[in-house]
Amino acid sequence: MKKTVLIFGDSNTWGWKPSNDMIKPLERWDDDVRWPGVLQAGLGDGYKVIADGLNGRTTVWNDPIEEYRCGKDQIIPTMDAQAPFDMIIIFVGTNDLKVRYTVSPQDIANGVGILVDKALHQVGDYTGEPKVLLVGPPPLGPIADGVFKYMFAGNEEKSKDVAQFYKGVAEAYGVEFFDAGTVVKSSDEDGLHLQADQHELLGKAMVKEVKRIIG
């Protein structure tokens, strides 16, 4: 039987291209370019990777402009819809850095902690008690000249502190942790999303993590 990995992510899981200008229709990297596709290829036929990536997804915040993006409201329905699985990767938090939320790195980590808590309380419904891997998002790149310069203005420094608080959340809940910022960096083009080569690096790094955690 195949081992199943569920990814609960945002636009970097969806595959947003840094070249998107928010005017023309959005483009996304091809399936085999996106890091979940790289992960699937690296794991091979004995695994199934399910990628649930939603642009703008937050940890716990309701977006008054882009509605239906609150991860707290979505993680349980997503888990129920995709069950059973052996592992869930939670990779959100970058969108919490939008200036409209005005939250600290610690608050972002507290938000993702709620997602971890919900996942852990839901796993009892699934055979095998799936493992939880919390992924700290990479810091923002330069945004001053990009399309997100107003949406994320002034939060580059704040973004550098998010992963350390995520690590603390993972330790507190006894789940696995991986800091994506140790292997990839956000694009210089829009300061937020991953270029194709970074998707490849992240996907290959996650192959090692998945095999380490669930074999």
Automatic annotation (TrEMBL):
Residues 7-200 form the SGNH hydrolase-type esterase domain. Transmembrane segments: none annotated. It comes from the Bacteria. This is Lysophospholipase L1.
